[in-house]
Amino acid sequence: QVQVVESGGGSVQIGESLRLSCAASGQSDSVTAMAWYRQAPGKRREFVASITTSGGRVVMLESGKGRFTLSKDNAKFTITLQMNSLRSEDTAVYFCAATNRNYCATYGCSGVPDYQYWGQGTQVTVSS
Q: Are 105 and 54 in contact, with CB atoms under 8 Å apart?
């Protein structure tokens, strides 16, 4: 089993920044990729970004390019999503996910079913 715990989030104004962190524990040596998703009220869960744990390859949501940065630290199983120039449409609950599926190891994965382990979510609210 792998446990996933998020931290960060909160309320900011348009144009400000937030940092979200996520740590995988337990059988984390088996984790091949980790990702952030978000879900706004009444909407489906949306992929934000993923990163492979070995090569650090990042896949990013188009609207996040140039504003969001996803990185992993030397501990390998902790990832950080730095979000700059936040917009009101970034408001959502952000979920961290981890997978041990081998096919996610090289390029990462972006599908919700690809990830078996999920955190509880953390609220991000961006207002004017």
A: yes
